[in-house]
């Protein structure tokens, strides 16, 4: 009997230990939105076990596949659209097999399910607009476009300790959020969250950036610390990034800026000024203290700025932290900033928001519209441009610059933007109107995720060979300036019509095996130690036979999927080479992957202002000169 009781007691203790361990590892789930406690819900010990965000469980994937097959049909129902509207869907229906059956690429299923919801909402809005236009009793007027600038006066209070400010059309590279406030209260801790839109049936939105300032430390340290993280309903909290960095962790760079400024947490001897509400008193002598950008009771001006690789924070003019975008959590998804905790908020100002131009006020509108495709005439070149839905300004910059080359305006060269749907309905409505106005957008039947850009490459090949017939097909980005005249001259000089890959060829590259890398590739995705030759993504050209083979193979489901689109093109061409195609790899050193140099053929990472400047120099100087110093 004693042994039996002892066994029961031992078993009970073991159960309590297991239960306690589970609770420690997985605290009771609290609603992100409704929780009245403002403290970071991130497990403060997570940073010790550094690892990539957890992948979705296989059973969940099976469920999602079934759901995707059901909802994908909504994307391809024939709609009551005009011939003009149908032009934006020239490749849409030809991608049906690809988006229905390709479950290899990350986020493919989610992107299609989200697109189905977005497409139904957009089509409902389009139908309503048409009905209203036919109803004389309904006063129709253009809705306010995506604003370029917002301030706290547009914010609404969510509870006694927090504010939120919505971004109608998300964020884009160059967008900034400036928060002016004073940490106060008992602890002076506060948090800034950039959140997205929750999917139907999901109570809480994804957190694209969680920025938690703890002035009195946490369970790991007693010193002030900044904690950055992400959260999704599928993966919970990701891996914490702390500033100051743990002693055993090396700082990474994001957009060439340190993940954590080395000043933060270090002892500094400073001759300083003590500020009060009434006056500023100079204090002589030096005082040693650890530098931290936020201080209880003192005014701070903090600015979050969206870069090409991540989000940077500056405080009072000093760079403090950088946070790299994580997979599926990209800036265009952000729909709101939420600020809560012990902070007296004085002002919130956002600028550089994505906004579309009002076509009613564009004097040169006709010159910006796509030239009609010449019937029964083969194009010299088709150019497909990667773009995301809310990159309105970038597309307008392209239309006003290198799309004004004579070869483009005459129809010798055709240019189209390839754009996935957005999760935000206002963005999709603006995009739809833009597509109808300029006739140069090809909508994609999926929501844009970086891991799916290879699908766009396939769509470009489909358009360049099945919708039009082009001798050469080119892929580029909406932040790349393309000298169309020089591309055509290069094609004539090379004088190769089959098996051509022209671009900045990389013949000796290796897969990134670090999970922290944006280009991480696991051995399961690519087991070999090197890639076949490929051309960097800012711009490359393939001959029509290569594009035709890719289009044909995707229809038959025989195309190997790979998430890095420029490398994927190299892989596909390598497979063709193994089957007998003689491939000509033509390296073009004047394609600059990062920035601009005089004499360029393609200059990458050019904002709208730089694009306009480059075009002005070409028109005035008749030379490819870069802008700036």
Automatic annotation (TrEMBL):
SUPFAM superfamilies: Concanavalin A-like lectins/glucanases. Pfam families: Gal-bind_lectin (PF00337), Galactosyl_T (PF01762). PROSITE patterns: GALECTIN. One of its GO terms (cellular component) is Golgi membrane. It comes from the Eukaryota. Gene3D superfamilies: 2.60.120.200, 3.90.550.50. Pathway: Protein modification; protein glycosylation. One of its GO terms (biological process) is carbohydrate derivative biosynthetic process. It is a single-pass type II membrane protein. The keyword Transferase applies. One of its GO terms (molecular function) is galactosyltransferase activity. Residues 163-351 form the Galectin domain. It is found in: Golgi apparatus membrane. Its cofactor is Mn(2+). Transmembrane segments: none annotated. The keyword Iron does not apply. Residues 1-20 form the signal peptide. Keywords: Glycoprotein, Glycosyltransferase, Golgi apparatus, Manganese, Membrane, Signal, Signal-anchor, Transferase, Transmembrane, Transmembrane helix. Belongs to the glycosyltransferase 31 family. This is Beta-1,3-galactosyltransferase 15. It comes from Nicotiana sylvestris.
């Amino acid at each position: 009997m004693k042994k039996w009781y002892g066994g029961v007691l031992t078993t009970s203790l073991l159960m309590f230990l297991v239960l306690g361990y589970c609770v420690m590892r997985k605290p009771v789930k609290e609603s992100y939105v409704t929780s009245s406690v403002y403290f970071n819900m991130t497990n403060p010990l997570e940073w010790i076990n550094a690892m990539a965000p957890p992948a979705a469980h296989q059973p969940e994937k099976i469920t999602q596949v079934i759901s995707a097959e059901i909802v994908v049909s909504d994307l391809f129902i024939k709609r009551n659209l005009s011939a003009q509207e149908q032009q934006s869907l020239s490749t849409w229906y030809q991608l049906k097999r690809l988006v229905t059956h390709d479950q290899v690429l990350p986020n493919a299923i989610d992107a299609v399910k989200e697109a189905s919801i977005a497409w139904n909402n957009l089509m409902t809005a389009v139908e309503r607009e048409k009905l209203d236009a036919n109803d004389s009793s309904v006063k129709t007027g253009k809705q306010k476009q995506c604003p370029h600038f917002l301030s706290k006066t547009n914010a609404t209070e969510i509870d006694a300790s927090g504010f939120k400010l919505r971004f109608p059309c998300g964020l884009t590279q160059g967008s900034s959020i400036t928060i002016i406030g004073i940490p106060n209260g008992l602890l002076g801790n506060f948090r800034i969250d950039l959140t997205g839109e929750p999917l139907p049936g999901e109570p809480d939105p994804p957190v694209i950036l969680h920025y938690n300032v703890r002035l009195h430390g946490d369970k790991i340290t007693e010193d002030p610390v900044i904690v950055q993280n992400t959260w999704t309903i599928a993966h919970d909290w990701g891996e914490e990034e702390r500033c100051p960095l743990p002693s055993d962790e090396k700082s990474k760079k994001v957009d060439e800026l340190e993940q954590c400024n080395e000043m933060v947490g270090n002892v500094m001897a400073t001759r300083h000024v003590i500020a009060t509400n009434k006056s500023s008193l100079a204090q002589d002598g030096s005082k040693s203290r650890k530098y931290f950008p936020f201080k209880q009771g003192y005014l701070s001006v903090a600015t979050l700025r969206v870069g090409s690789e991540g989000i940077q924070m500056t405080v009072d003019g000093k760079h403090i932290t950088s946070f790299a975008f994580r997979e599926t959590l990209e800036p265009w998804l952000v729909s709101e900033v939420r600020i809560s905790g012990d902070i007296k908020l004085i002002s919130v100002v956002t600028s550089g928001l994505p906004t579309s131009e009002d076509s009613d006020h564009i004097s040169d509108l006709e010159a910006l519209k796509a030239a009609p495709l010449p019937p029964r005439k083969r194009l010299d070149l088709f150019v497909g441009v990667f773009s995301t839905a809310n990159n309105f300004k970038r597309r307008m910059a392209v239309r006003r610059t290198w799309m004004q080359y004579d070869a483009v305006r005459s129809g010798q060269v055709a240019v189209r933007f390839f754009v996935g749907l957005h999760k935000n309905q206002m963005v999709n409505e603006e995009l739809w109107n833009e597509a109808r106005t300029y006739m140069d957008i090809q909508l994609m039947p999926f929501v844009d995720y970086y891991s799916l850009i290879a699908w766009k490459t396939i769509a470009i090949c489909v358009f360049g060979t099945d919708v039009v017939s082009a001798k050469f097909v080119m892929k580029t980005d909406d932040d790349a300036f393309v000298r169309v005249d020089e591309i055509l001259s290069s094609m004539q000089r090379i004088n190769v019509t089959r098996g051509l890959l022209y671009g900045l060829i990389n013949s000796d590259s290796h897969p990134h095996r670090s999970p922290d890398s944006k280009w991480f590739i696991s051995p399961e995705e690519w087991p070999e130690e090197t890639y076949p030759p490929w051309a960097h993504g800012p711009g490359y050209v393939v001959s029509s036979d290569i594009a035709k083979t890719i289009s044909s193979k995707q229809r038959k489901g025989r195309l190997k999927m790979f998430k890095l689109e420029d490398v994927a093109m190299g892989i596909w061409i390598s497979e063709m080479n193994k089957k007998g195609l003689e491939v000509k790899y033509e390296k073009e050193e004047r394609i600059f992957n990062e920035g601009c140099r005089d004499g360029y053929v393609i200059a990458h990472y050019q904002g709208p202002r730089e694009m306009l400047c480059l075009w002005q120099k070409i028109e005035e100087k008749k030379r490819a000169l870069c802008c700036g110093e």
